[in-house]
Amino acid sequence: xxxxxxxxxxxxxxxxxxxxxxxxxxxxxxxxxxxxxxxxxxxxxxxxxxxxxxxxxxxxxxxxxxxxxxxxxxxxxxxxxxxxxxxxxxxxxxxxxxxxxxxxxxxxxxxxxxxxxxxxxxxxxxxxxxxxxxxxxxxxxxxxxxxxxxxxxxxxxxxxxxxxxxxxxxxxxxxxxxxxxxxxxxxxxxxxxxxxxxxxxxxxxxxxxxxxxxxxxxxxxxxxxxxxxxxxxxxxxxxxxxxxxxxxx
Length: 249
Known about the structure:
By secondary structure, the protein is α/β, with parallel strands linked by helices.
């Protein structure tokens, strides 16, 4: 399956459809300009083009959006070159969890936004689930490159100078591990981590799943998996994503 088909399958999944529907519900109408901050494949940029006369999509690599209504820009969310108050609305979803200097990114989002900011991030994610071990630098990193975790308080603090007007939750998740299981999984080489199409957050190398592992590593990983499954079963479920809407005071 090629990457385009994988993206279609991803966006078409029930969980993603529910997340998308909630975000679109929260995005206000009646404005002219919108920034898709961290646009990636431009999925949301194209949807926004049905509601806004002017859509700008920005990402570290210039987004490739097959829609003439969308202006694509290469740029870093922590140091955008747009003037202050450039966009009536800024949408930033499934992005902030990837940015090490998230405080700077949020300050930049507030700077370029004129009226409304809509944020979507994973909620109460356990970063120890799906951890990876880089075969190049030997360091351990979080699944999907998620270097930040969020709850209501952290998001409110990041956008503290703006007024929180709506909070919404989507999906359910109960995945959780514990310190012992995480330690054992590290010793086992993190064979169950998320390696496909991901890069190391430390050295930038393309991640590769562990190859040959010794008996000790296999035993550690098996014990870790059992402990994680027990912890998950004992954990109360919580929403998978949190969406917040902020307005300029």
